[in-house]
Protein 1
Amino acid sequence: MTYDLLIRNGRIVDGSGMPAFRGDLAVKDGMIVEIGKINSDAARTVDADGLAVSPGFIDNHCHYDAQVLWDPLCTFSCHHGATTVIIGNCSLALAPVKEQERAELAGMLSYVEAIPMDVLQAGVPWNWETFPDYMRAIGQRLGVNVGTLVGHSAVRLYAMGKDASQRDATDDELATMRRLVREALDAGALGLSITRNMNHFDIAGKRIPAACAPESELFALVDVLREAGTGVIQCGGGTNPELKDGLLSRLSQACGRPVMYNTLLEQARQPGRWKTHLSHVEETVRQGIRAIPLCNPGSVVNKFTMRNCQVFRSMPTWLPILQGPDDDKLRAYRDPATRAKLRAEVEAPLTPDSTFSKRWDLMIVDEPKLAKNRGLRGQHIAEIAKAQGKEPVDAFLDLAVEEGLDTVFSLGEINMDTEAVAQILSSPYAVVGLSDGGAHVQFHSNVSNPTRLLGYWVREKKIMSLELAVRRLTFDSATAFGIYDRGLLQPGMAADLVVFDPDTVRPVAEDVVHDFPSDGWRMRELAEGIHYTVVNGEVLMEKGTHTGNYPGRVLHNARRQGL
C-alpha cells in the first residue's frame, strides 16, 4: 500500500499515558492505519528522528465563534499544536439568532469575552439563523477541527427576545428553548453551555440571559441531553454554585451527562480556596458523579488601559463608567463624589463574585505614557501610593487620568503560585484546558496551554512525565467532550497529529499584530518546537507556517456520528 503520509523514526507518545516507543506511523484517507516498523512508500514522508509524535492537542475551551468565520485556522491555537478547538462556551454562541437580535447577541460575546465590537461588526457575515445553519457556515472552510456547543444565552434570547434578561420563561418559551437545544444536538453539537457567572454583562450593561435563568430552567434544558442520550454540559462560572450547594453535581446526576466547568485555579482573590475545591472534586468523583472542573497550566496576566478595562466590572458604580465613552470616564474619575464611591467599592469585603483581589502590589505600571512618569515603569501601585501618601485607588486613578487613560497596567492574580498550580495540574480529577482562545484579545493571548505544559511544567519543573502530559492534552479532553475518534494514536483513529521537540517546545513572548477585520489589533503568542501539525491526515502547519491546506471539519457528537 502507498500511504498518504508516513512519519518515520519518531518517539510515539500515543495519548494513553503508557510509555513512549520508537516507531513509524502511516496515514491513509485521513485515518491512522499502521504504527510500527513500516517499509511501504508514501506520498509524503516526514523524518521525526529526535522528535515526539503525539495525537493533536484539543483546545477545549475557546471563543472563536466569530473569529473562525474570517480565520479558519483559529490562530493562535494551531501554532501550539491544537488540531481541535471547542467553541460556544459559557452560554455564548452566535446561533440561533433572529435578524433583529444579531447586534444584541454579538454584544454579549463582545463584552464578556473582550472582543471589540467593531471587529465583530466587520467580520461576521450573519448568513444563518438556526444552529445547524451556523454549523454549515463555519464548516465551509476550516484549518482545524471545530466542536460546537449550543449556548444557553443565545437560546434564551431567541425564545424570549427583549425579556431574556428580565424574567422567568413561560412554559411555551421553555418549550422553544428545549426544541432549539434538541435541534442543535440532532445537528451534531457536542452539547450545551450554560453560565452561573453573575459578572457577565452585555455591551449595554445588562446581565446576559443565561445568568438570569432559574435553576429549574437549567434542569429542563439538560434533560434534553438525557433524552437525546448524548452531549456534555459546559458551565461558565461553575465553581461558586458547585461549592455552595452542588448545583453542577445535581445537574449531572439528573441527566446522566458529564458537566465540565470553570475552573479549578489558584487566585489572589481567594487564597487557599483551590485546596477546598480540589477536596470537593475528589469527594464528588468518589460518589461517581461526573462534574469535573477545567484547570489551566498558565498564569494569567492582563495588560490593559483604563480605556478598556474589565478588572472592576463586578462593582456597580464602576461598571457603567467602564462601559461609557472615554470623556465620561475622565469626568467620573476626576469627580470627588464619584471617586469616593469607587474607593468604597474597591475597599469593600471580597465576595466569591469579586473580580479584583485588592492586591495593589500585583498591579504594575507596565508602560507609562508621559516622560515625567517613566520612572514608575515596573513599580506596583501599592508602593507608588505609599510614596505619594495616597490611597492605592487614588494613586491608580490619578495616574490614569493624568495620562489620558493611556497608561498600560498589568495585573497577575491567577495561577501565580507555582507550587499550587503544580498540585492542581497533577490531579486526575480535573481536565487541563481553558485557554479562552479567541477571547480577551487585547489583554492577553493565553492559547499556549500545550507548549507551556510540555515546556515549563514537564521539561523544567518535572511535575509529570511527557506521556502523562500528552494524555492530559489529548485523550482526557477527547473523552470528556465525547470526541471518541480522536485523542489516541491507534489504527482506525482520525489522523490528528503533532510532531514536536520535547527539548525545545515552549511559548514565545507575546507581541501585537493588526490582523483583525476593521484593522483591529490583538495580542499574538506563537511557539517554538512544534514542527508539524496534521489535521485529518493533512499537514496544516509546518514549523509555524500554514501550508495552505484546509483539512478541518466540524466535529459531531457520538449520536450524530453513529447515524
Protein 2
Amino acid sequence: MMLPPYPFAAIVGQTQLKNSVLLAAVDWRLGVLLRGDKGAGKTTAARALAELLPAPSPFIDLPIGVTEDRLLGGINLSATLKGEPSLRPGLLSEADGGVLYVDEVNLLPDHLADALLDAAATGINNVEREGFSTTHDARFVLLGSMNQEEGSLRPQLLDRFALVVDVSASFDPTERRQVVERRLSYEKDPVAFVNRWKEEQSRIQAQIEKARSQLASILFPQEMLDRISQAVCDLGVNSLRADLAIARASCAQAALLNRDRVLQEHIDAVMPFALGHRVTCPPRNPQPPSRMPNSASPPKNDHRTDGPHQTEAKERLFSSQPISMPFLSRVSEPGEPGVVASKKGEAPGQVIRTRRADQPQELDVRSSVVEAVSQRGKASLRSEDLYEKVRKPLSGSRFLFLVDSSGSHAVQGRMRLVKGAAVGLIERSVHRRDEVAVIVFRGASAEILVEPTGDVDMVRSALEYLPTGGRTPLAHALELAAQLLAEDTILILLTDGHANVASRSDDPWRDALDAASKIRCRSLVIDTELNTNPTGKAKEIAEAMRAEYVKLETLESGEKLSQLLAARMMKHAN
C-alpha cells in the first residue's frame, strides 16, 4: 500500500522554502534550486507540492544515474523489434503538468543538466534519435536540490535556475520538537494525519489555482520594471535572466496575494531568491576591504625593485579585465593527443566498446543491425541482437593556477589582463567534477590563496581582491605547487619569469629552473612579459616544465588571446 505524501501545509517553519516553491507552482517557468544540508525538508516539500497542483499532476523523482534516452526519450525497443520503429517519451514528457524533482542536481552530468534546463525554460522537448524526431510538451515545475559540500553547479547552469533558496534545519528547540511530533504522528497513522490537514491543504490548493488564473492579467507598472533594472545594475549582475526572474516571480507573488498589479513589496519579497546566487562578484567600482581576504600582509617598508620596469614595490589592487577564453578542460602531455571539452548536448565519456544487452541503456543501432543481418540476413531486430554503448567514465581534474602578482605586473595595469586570463580559463574550463586551487606569489614568498575546492565563485572573488606588488618568488611557487599535484592535475602558470627571490641557493633563476624541471603534469605557461624589453624567461620555464607555452601580448581586446590559446589546444586535439 502506497502511503499518502506528507501534507505541504504540515511543514513546520521553512518559510522561504515554501514561498519559493509556491511561486513556481503559480508560474512553472520559475525553476527553483534548494541548497542546504540533508534532512532539512527539501525532498518532503518537493513531493508535497505535487499534491497541490491540479490533478493529475505527476511527481517525477529524477535518478542521478538516468540515461540520456530515459530522460529525453529514445527508441521504442518493443515496437522496433516488431518491425515498427518509433520513439518512446522520456521522463521530461512524463513530468508534463507536474513536478520534476532532481535531488543532488549538482551531480547530474552536464549535458543532461543542459537538456533538462532547456526544456524547463521553453516547456518543449525535442527528441532526435536514429533518424526519428518528435516534439512534446514539457511544462513542469522544476525543483532541484543540492548539498554544496558535495560540489557546486557551474555558473552557467546555476544561472538557469530562476530562484535559489538556502535551506537549513531550524535551531529553535520548539520548532524542532514540532517537526518531530508531526513526523511521528504521520508515521503512526498517515491517513488520519493527512485528513487533519485536509482543510488547510484545500485552501492552499485553491490559492494556487486562483493565482494561476489571474497571472496573465497582473499589471506590471513601468516604474516597477525600472526599479528592478536599477537594482540589478547596482549589484553588477550581468545576466538578464535575473531581471526576468524577478519580474516573473513578482507577478506570481502578486497573484498569490490576490493583487491586480505588482507593487514594491512584491519585488522586495522575491528579489533575494532571484539575486542571491547571481551576485558573485563585487558591485561596479567596489571599495576594496581594509584587509584583503586570504592574502598575506606585505613586508613592511618593502621598496625593493622587481625587473627593469618596477621602481616601487608598493602594493596596488587591480580589477580583472574580462577576456573571452577557449575551453581548456584537458591539456595533453607531450606526445599525447588532447581531449577537447565536450560540447553542449554530447554524451559524457568516449565510447570505448559495445556489448550485448537485452535491455540496453544506450542502444548501439549499428552494431545491433549488423548482428541481425549477419545472423538472419535481414535487419529485423530481436532482443538477442541488441548491443549497447559502453563509455569511458568521466573523472574530474584539479586545475592548479600559479598567479604571478609581483610588482612588475603593476606596469600599465598588466595585472588586469593576468586576472582576466585566469578567471576566463576557470569559468570556461572548470566543470562540476573538477576542483581549483590557486597559488599566488609576490614579495618574499608564495602562498596558497585557495585550497583545492569546487567553489568557483570563491576562487573568482579571491582573485578579484588579490593585490599586486613586491618581488617574484617563482621558485617557491613551483615548489609549493609540487605539493598539490594530484593524479589528474592541470597546471596553469601565469608569469613574466622575472624570478628574483632565491629558494634553496643564492641564485633565484637557477632555483626556479630546478623547481620547474620537477613538475610532472600537464601544464600551460602564459607568458605575461611586456614586449618592450623581452627576456624570454617564461619560455625557458615552460621548456623546463615540458609545458605548452602561450605569449600574453599587449591586447586591445581579449579575442586575440582566445584565438592564440584555441589554436594551441587544437594542435593537441589533432
